[in-house]
Design brief:
The protein is of the alpha/beta class. It is 35% helix and 18% strand.
Length: 296
Amino acid sequence: MAGWHSRVFLMNFRLSKRPTQLILLVFIALLQTGCSSVFFYPDKVTYITPDRLNLEYEDIYLDTADGETLHGWWLPALTEEPAKGTVYYLHGNAQNVSAHILNVAWLPEQGYNVFAIDYRGYGQSTGAPDIEGALHDTETGLRWLAERHPENDHPLFLLGQSLGGGLGIALASEWVQRSEQPQLSGVILDGTFSGFRLIAREKLGEFWLTWPFQIPLSWSITDDYEGVDRIANIAPVPVKIIHSARDGIIPFHHGMRLYEAAEQPKDFLRTDTPHGATFVLPAYREAVLEFMDGAF
Protein backbone atom coordinates (compact mmCIF):
# COMPACT_ATOMS: atom_id res chain seq x y z
CA MET A 1 0.00 0.00 0.00
CA ALA A 2 3.06 2.24 -0.01
CA GLY A 3 2.75 5.71 -1.47
CA TRP A 4 -0.85 5.45 -2.47
CA HIS A 5 -1.62 9.07 -1.64
CA SER A 6 0.87 10.59 -3.97
CA ARG A 7 -0.25 9.27 -7.32
CA VAL A 8 -3.78 10.59 -7.15
CA PHE A 9 -3.45 13.69 -5.11
CA LEU A 10 -0.18 15.41 -5.88
CA MET A 11 -0.88 15.53 -9.58
CA ASN A 12 -3.90 17.68 -8.91
CA PHE A 13 -1.94 19.90 -6.55
CA ARG A 14 0.00 21.20 -9.52
CA LEU A 15 -3.16 22.15 -11.35
CA SER A 16 -4.34 24.83 -9.03
CA LYS A 17 -3.06 26.81 -6.10
CA ARG A 18 -6.52 27.90 -5.01
CA PRO A 19 -7.67 25.62 -2.19
CA THR A 20 -11.34 25.51 -3.10
CA GLN A 21 -10.68 24.54 -6.70
CA LEU A 22 -8.02 22.11 -5.62
CA ILE A 23 -10.31 20.31 -3.20
CA LEU A 24 -13.07 20.20 -5.77
CA LEU A 25 -10.73 18.72 -8.37
CA VAL A 26 -9.56 16.04 -5.99
CA PHE A 27 -13.10 15.18 -4.95
CA ILE A 28 -14.26 14.87 -8.57
CA ALA A 29 -11.20 12.87 -9.63
CA LEU A 30 -11.64 10.36 -6.85
CA LEU A 31 -15.33 9.97 -7.49
CA GLN A 32 -14.63 9.35 -11.18
CA THR A 33 -12.12 6.61 -10.44
CA GLY A 34 -14.30 5.14 -7.74
CA CYS A 35 -11.19 5.08 -5.53
CA SER A 36 -10.66 1.42 -6.46
CA SER A 37 -7.54 2.26 -8.46
CA VAL A 38 -5.76 3.57 -5.38
CA PHE A 39 -5.27 -0.01 -4.21
CA PHE A 40 -3.11 -0.93 -7.20
CA TYR A 41 0.41 0.20 -8.15
CA PRO A 42 1.54 -2.22 -10.85
CA ASP A 43 4.56 -1.89 -13.09
CA LYS A 44 6.15 -3.90 -15.88
CA VAL A 45 9.72 -3.99 -14.62
CA THR A 46 11.37 -7.38 -14.13
CA TYR A 47 13.26 -7.01 -10.86
CA ILE A 48 14.50 -10.56 -10.45
CA THR A 49 13.72 -13.95 -11.91
CA PRO A 50 13.73 -17.21 -9.94
CA ASP A 51 16.81 -18.58 -11.71
CA ARG A 52 18.84 -15.74 -10.19
CA LEU A 53 17.86 -17.23 -6.82
CA ASN A 54 18.93 -20.73 -7.90
CA LEU A 55 15.31 -21.82 -8.17
CA GLU A 56 13.74 -23.94 -10.88
CA TYR A 57 10.68 -22.30 -12.37
CA GLU A 58 8.09 -22.44 -15.12
CA ASP A 59 6.28 -19.50 -16.69
CA ILE A 60 2.53 -20.04 -16.52
CA TYR A 61 0.04 -18.11 -18.64
CA LEU A 62 -3.67 -18.32 -17.84
CA ASP A 63 -6.64 -16.94 -19.77
CA THR A 64 -9.41 -15.31 -17.77
CA ALA A 65 -13.09 -15.56 -18.61
CA ASP A 66 -13.15 -11.88 -19.62
CA GLY A 67 -10.27 -12.09 -22.09
CA GLU A 68 -7.19 -11.17 -20.06
CA THR A 69 -3.99 -13.18 -19.84
CA LEU A 70 -2.35 -13.67 -16.46
CA HIS A 71 1.27 -14.55 -15.86
CA GLY A 72 2.58 -16.55 -12.96
CA TRP A 73 5.57 -18.56 -11.81
CA TRP A 74 5.49 -22.19 -10.76
CA LEU A 75 8.37 -22.99 -8.43
CA PRO A 76 8.68 -26.73 -7.73
CA ALA A 77 9.94 -28.02 -4.40
CA LEU A 78 13.69 -28.61 -4.41
CA THR A 79 13.79 -31.61 -2.08
CA GLU A 80 14.41 -35.17 -3.22
CA GLU A 81 11.29 -36.36 -1.44
CA PRO A 82 7.84 -35.64 -2.87
CA ALA A 83 6.64 -32.10 -2.15
CA LYS A 84 5.02 -31.61 1.26
CA GLY A 85 2.41 -29.37 -0.31
CA THR A 86 1.81 -26.29 -2.45
CA VAL A 87 1.62 -22.63 -1.44
CA TYR A 88 -0.51 -20.29 -3.53
CA TYR A 89 1.07 -16.85 -3.06
CA LEU A 90 -0.80 -13.57 -3.56
CA HIS A 91 1.49 -10.55 -3.42
CA GLY A 92 1.00 -6.96 -2.28
CA ASN A 93 -0.16 -3.99 -4.30
CA ALA A 94 3.08 -2.52 -5.66
CA GLN A 95 5.22 -3.46 -8.69
CA ASN A 96 4.71 -7.11 -9.68
CA VAL A 97 5.55 -10.67 -8.71
CA SER A 98 9.23 -10.28 -9.58
CA ALA A 99 9.55 -7.69 -6.80
CA HIS A 100 7.85 -9.95 -4.24
CA ILE A 101 9.27 -13.36 -5.08
CA LEU A 102 11.87 -13.19 -2.31
CA ASN A 103 9.01 -13.50 0.18
CA VAL A 104 8.44 -17.10 -0.92
CA ALA A 105 11.76 -18.05 -2.52
CA TRP A 106 12.75 -19.90 0.66
CA LEU A 107 9.83 -22.33 0.49
CA PRO A 108 10.98 -24.71 -2.32
CA GLU A 109 14.05 -25.82 -0.37
CA GLN A 110 11.71 -26.53 2.55
CA GLY A 111 9.76 -28.97 0.41
CA TYR A 112 6.91 -26.78 -0.82
CA ASN A 113 5.86 -25.95 -4.35
CA VAL A 114 4.97 -22.31 -4.87
CA PHE A 115 2.61 -20.77 -7.39
CA ALA A 116 2.78 -16.97 -7.56
CA ILE A 117 0.51 -15.01 -9.86
CA ASP A 118 0.37 -11.45 -11.14
CA TYR A 119 -3.05 -9.80 -11.14
CA ARG A 120 -4.25 -8.12 -14.32
CA GLY A 121 -2.11 -5.10 -15.18
CA TYR A 122 0.88 -6.36 -13.19
CA GLY A 123 4.10 -7.57 -14.82
CA GLN A 124 3.37 -9.66 -17.91
CA SER A 125 -0.37 -9.87 -17.16
CA THR A 126 -2.63 -7.90 -19.49
CA GLY A 127 -5.39 -5.47 -18.58
CA ALA A 128 -5.88 -2.87 -15.87
CA PRO A 129 -6.42 -3.75 -12.22
CA ASP A 130 -9.47 -3.17 -10.08
CA ILE A 131 -10.87 -5.00 -7.08
CA GLU A 132 -13.40 -7.13 -8.94
CA GLY A 133 -10.92 -8.07 -11.67
CA ALA A 134 -8.18 -8.96 -9.19
CA LEU A 135 -10.59 -11.19 -7.29
CA HIS A 136 -11.44 -13.04 -10.49
CA ASP A 137 -7.71 -13.37 -11.22
CA THR A 138 -6.98 -14.96 -7.87
CA GLU A 139 -9.74 -17.48 -8.47
CA THR A 140 -8.38 -18.22 -11.95
CA GLY A 141 -5.03 -19.05 -10.40
CA LEU A 142 -6.52 -21.24 -7.71
CA ARG A 143 -8.59 -23.19 -10.24
CA TRP A 144 -5.43 -23.83 -12.26
CA LEU A 145 -3.79 -25.21 -9.13
CA ALA A 146 -6.86 -27.33 -8.43
CA GLU A 147 -6.55 -28.90 -11.86
CA ARG A 148 -2.81 -29.51 -11.37
CA HIS A 149 -3.26 -31.04 -7.91
CA PRO A 150 -6.86 -32.24 -7.64
CA GLU A 151 -6.08 -34.73 -4.89
CA ASN A 152 -7.10 -33.77 -1.35
CA ASP A 153 -4.10 -35.56 0.20
CA HIS A 154 -1.75 -32.92 -1.27
CA PRO A 155 -1.83 -29.99 1.18
CA LEU A 156 -2.72 -26.66 -0.40
CA PHE A 157 -2.08 -23.38 1.42
CA LEU A 158 -2.93 -19.79 0.55
CA LEU A 159 -0.40 -17.14 1.58
CA GLY A 160 -1.50 -13.53 1.07
CA GLN A 161 0.50 -10.45 1.93
CA SER A 162 -1.06 -7.00 2.35
CA LEU A 163 -3.43 -6.55 -0.63
CA GLY A 164 -2.92 -10.22 -1.44
CA GLY A 165 -4.32 -11.09 1.96
CA GLY A 166 -7.38 -8.93 1.41
CA LEU A 167 -8.02 -10.69 -1.87
CA GLY A 168 -7.16 -14.05 -0.34
CA ILE A 169 -9.75 -13.76 2.44
CA ALA A 170 -12.53 -13.23 -0.10
CA LEU A 171 -11.24 -16.07 -2.27
CA ALA A 172 -10.77 -18.54 0.57
CA SER A 173 -14.14 -17.81 2.14
CA GLU A 174 -15.92 -18.43 -1.16
CA TRP A 175 -13.85 -21.57 -1.81
CA VAL A 176 -14.73 -23.01 1.57
CA GLN A 177 -18.40 -22.03 1.51
CA ARG A 178 -18.85 -23.61 -1.93
CA SER A 179 -17.04 -26.78 -0.80
CA GLU A 180 -14.65 -26.47 -3.73
CA GLN A 181 -12.01 -29.16 -4.23
CA PRO A 182 -9.26 -29.66 -3.34
CA GLN A 183 -9.80 -28.33 0.13
CA LEU A 184 -7.55 -25.62 1.47
CA SER A 185 -5.25 -26.87 4.22
CA GLY A 186 -4.55 -23.45 5.70
CA VAL A 187 -4.65 -19.70 5.07
CA ILE A 188 -1.78 -17.40 6.06
CA LEU A 189 -2.34 -13.63 6.10
CA ASP A 190 0.63 -11.30 6.53
CA GLY A 191 0.22 -7.54 7.04
CA THR A 192 -3.33 -7.62 5.71
CA PHE A 193 -5.93 -4.89 6.12
CA SER A 194 -9.26 -5.78 7.64
CA GLY A 195 -11.38 -4.23 4.90
CA PHE A 196 -11.00 -2.42 1.58
CA ARG A 197 -13.37 0.36 2.56
CA LEU A 198 -11.96 0.70 6.05
CA ILE A 199 -8.33 1.06 5.02
CA ALA A 200 -9.32 3.51 2.28
CA ARG A 201 -11.14 5.67 4.80
CA GLU A 202 -8.15 5.58 7.15
CA LYS A 203 -5.72 6.60 4.42
CA LEU A 204 -7.98 9.37 3.17
CA GLY A 205 -8.20 10.63 6.73
CA GLU A 206 -4.41 10.90 7.01
CA PHE A 207 -4.13 13.48 4.23
CA TRP A 208 -5.35 17.01 4.87
CA LEU A 209 -6.69 17.44 1.37
CA THR A 210 -8.96 14.41 1.51
CA TRP A 211 -9.68 14.38 5.22
CA PRO A 212 -13.02 16.20 4.80
CA PHE A 213 -14.14 13.62 2.22
CA GLN A 214 -12.92 10.43 3.84
CA ILE A 215 -16.40 9.10 4.52
CA PRO A 216 -18.18 9.92 1.21
CA LEU A 217 -15.16 8.89 -0.87
CA SER A 218 -14.77 5.60 0.97
CA TRP A 219 -18.39 4.81 0.12
CA SER A 220 -17.35 4.63 -3.53
CA ILE A 221 -15.47 1.43 -2.66
CA THR A 222 -17.49 -1.74 -2.41
CA ASP A 223 -17.89 -3.25 1.05
CA ASP A 224 -18.78 -6.67 -0.37
CA TYR A 225 -15.32 -8.06 0.38
CA GLU A 226 -14.46 -6.68 3.81
CA GLY A 227 -12.12 -9.12 5.49
CA VAL A 228 -13.72 -8.83 8.92
CA ASP A 229 -17.07 -9.83 7.42
CA ARG A 230 -15.72 -12.82 5.54
CA ILE A 231 -12.84 -14.32 7.49
CA ALA A 232 -15.13 -16.37 9.75
CA ASN A 233 -16.36 -18.21 6.67
CA ILE A 234 -12.90 -19.72 6.15
CA ALA A 235 -13.42 -22.01 9.17
CA PRO A 236 -12.83 -24.88 9.72
CA VAL A 237 -9.73 -24.26 7.59
CA PRO A 238 -6.95 -23.06 9.96
CA VAL A 239 -6.00 -19.40 9.68
CA LYS A 240 -2.70 -17.85 10.73
CA ILE A 241 -2.61 -14.07 10.97
CA ILE A 242 0.75 -12.31 11.01
CA HIS A 243 1.06 -8.61 11.72
CA SER A 244 3.91 -6.41 12.81
CA ALA A 245 3.64 -3.95 15.63
CA ARG A 246 5.93 -1.77 13.50
CA ASP A 247 3.87 -1.96 10.32
CA GLY A 248 3.84 1.61 9.04
CA ILE A 249 1.53 0.92 6.09
CA ILE A 250 -1.24 -1.29 7.48
CA PRO A 251 -1.64 -0.47 11.19
CA PHE A 252 -1.42 -3.29 13.70
CA HIS A 253 -5.05 -3.03 14.73
CA HIS A 254 -6.09 -4.41 11.33
CA GLY A 255 -4.42 -7.71 12.13
CA MET A 256 -6.08 -7.81 15.53
CA ARG A 257 -9.51 -7.10 14.03
CA LEU A 258 -9.07 -9.97 11.60
CA TYR A 259 -7.98 -12.30 14.36
CA GLU A 260 -10.96 -11.39 16.54
CA ALA A 261 -13.36 -11.89 13.63
CA ALA A 262 -11.90 -15.26 12.60
CA GLU A 263 -13.28 -18.53 13.93
CA GLN A 264 -11.18 -21.35 15.39
CA PRO A 265 -8.78 -22.82 14.51
CA LYS A 266 -6.78 -19.62 14.32
CA ASP A 267 -3.39 -18.35 15.36
CA PHE A 268 -1.81 -14.90 15.67
CA LEU A 269 1.88 -14.08 15.27
CA ARG A 270 2.95 -10.63 16.38
CA THR A 271 6.09 -9.64 14.53
CA ASP A 272 8.53 -6.75 14.60
CA THR A 273 9.53 -5.93 11.03
CA PRO A 274 8.59 -3.28 8.48
CA HIS A 275 5.60 -3.90 6.23
CA GLY A 276 6.23 -6.79 3.84
CA ALA A 277 9.51 -7.82 5.46
CA THR A 278 8.27 -10.64 7.67
CA PHE A 279 10.20 -13.44 6.03
CA VAL A 280 13.54 -11.73 6.27
CA LEU A 281 13.79 -13.24 9.73
CA PRO A 282 14.27 -17.05 9.96
CA ALA A 283 12.19 -17.26 13.15
CA TYR A 284 9.08 -16.03 11.32
CA ARG A 285 9.71 -18.45 8.45
CA GLU A 286 9.93 -21.25 10.99
CA ALA A 287 6.61 -20.21 12.53
CA VAL A 288 4.91 -20.51 9.16
CA LEU A 289 6.52 -23.90 8.51
CA GLU A 290 5.28 -25.15 11.87
CA PHE A 291 1.77 -23.96 11.02
CA MET A 292 1.82 -25.79 7.69
CA ASP A 293 3.43 -28.93 9.13
CA GLY A 294 0.64 -29.00 11.69
CA ALA A 295 -1.91 -29.37 8.90
CA PHE A 296 -0.60 -32.83 7.94
